[in-house]
Amino acid sequence: MGSSSADGARLPPSRAGSRLCVRCGERKAALKRPKTLEQICRECFYIVFEDEIHQTIVDNTLFKAGERVAIGASGGKDSTVLAYVISELNRRHNYGLDLFLLSVDEGITGYRDDSLETVKRNEIQYGLPLKIVSYKDLYGWTMDDIVKAIGLKNNCTFCGVFRRQALDRGAALLKADKIVTGHNADDIAETVLLNILRGDIARLSRCTFITTGEDGPIPRCKPFKYTYEKEIVMYAYFKKLDYFSTECNTWFFGHSVLVISSAIETYHFIPISKDVRMASIHQMHTVVLLVNLLKI
After folding, report:
1. Could you tell me which residue ranges the tRNA(Ile)-lysidine/2-thiocytidine synthase N-terminal domain spans (predicted)?
2. What is the pLDDT of residue 110?
3. Could you give phi then psi for residue 18, rounded to 5 degrees?
4. Tell me: the pLDDT tens digits for 254-296?
5. Range of 157's domain?
6. Which pairing describes strands 178-180 and 211-212: parallel, antiparallel, or unpaired?
7. CA geometry: angle at 221 spanning 85 and 244, to 5°?
8. Torsion angle of alpha carbons 106, 109, 110, 113, nearest 10°?
9. Parallel, antiparallel, or unpaired: how do β-strands 68-72 and 130-134 relate?
């Protein structure tokens, strides 16, 4: 039983000075959920994390039984957790999906070749077939070749466009009905902020959709739309999932902050200090919260 404070409010149960899980009241709390601020144990965290994703899938009717679904797999934490959770939920709740991993080899030496080894291990660990499509096979050149030709400027833009097309072509080749990606609430919040700063109303109106491309041949779904990135990291850590932790050498944690502040400078001619850049992180998490509360 939990104790009460002086004003009568319930306090989380505790034992010998250790705070217990607010859900089961039996095991010691192992973490404080970023999403709800609850002190919970690992076992309860696994349950609520997976149940919330299942509820998102059900509430938005993301899948139909018998569909062939490509899981966009990069070997990173988001796609690795996505592959693990979706395969578990598919078995547990009998979704009836035909799942497979789909990876893109951009041809980035020292990055993609290593991360693809992780995906190959995931193929065995999760019992999911793997298909790898490469820029070299699809376009005749690698991302390294592109950088040599055009330099570093705008290379991320080129890579993003080509990668999206490569996923579509790979999914079509394998006759997939849908593609699922590991885009999470933080990613969506970043996109919302960026489109607001750019004044891009057209993209702002659709960037929070949980499913995109419904008018095209292969729709894309985001089961992690309401899932915080911090919780994905915690889940991967506690579950000891095998993922590739090194980011692309042109992409790092502060990228979103730099992009956002750069957009402010470009469109509003305001020089942005380092402190303001870092403050943007807190603004982004505020948008994450709004996306979850308003279910936009």
Report:
1. 69-250
2. 77
3. -100, 135
4. 455 455 555 555 554 444 444 433 444 445 555 555 555 545 5
5. 52-269
6. unpaired
7. 50
8. 50
9. unpaired
Q: Is residue 243 assigned to a domain?
A: yes
| CATH code of the domain in which 91 resides | 3.40.50.620
Q: Does some domain include residue 98?
A: yes
Q: Return d(Cα 280, Cα 259) in angstroms, integer.
A: 10
As a whole number of angstroms, the distance between CA 283 and CA 275 comes to 13
pLDDT at 216: 83
Residue pair 103/131 in contact by the 8 Å Cβ criterion: yes
Residue type, 259: V
Residues of the chain with pLDDT under 50: 1-10, 15-17, 251-254, 257, 268-282, 294
| Number of domains, the chain | 1
Q: How far is CA 118 from CA 87, 111, 114, 122, in A?
A: 17, 11, 7, 6
Question: In one letter, which amino acid is 194?
Answer: L
Q: Is residue 3 part of a domain?
A: no
The reply to whether 186 falls in a domain is yes
Q: What is the DSSP string of 42-102?
A: HHHHHHHHHHHHHHHHHHTT---TT-EEEEE--SSHHHHHHHHHHHHHHHHTT---EEEEE
Amino acid in position 206: R
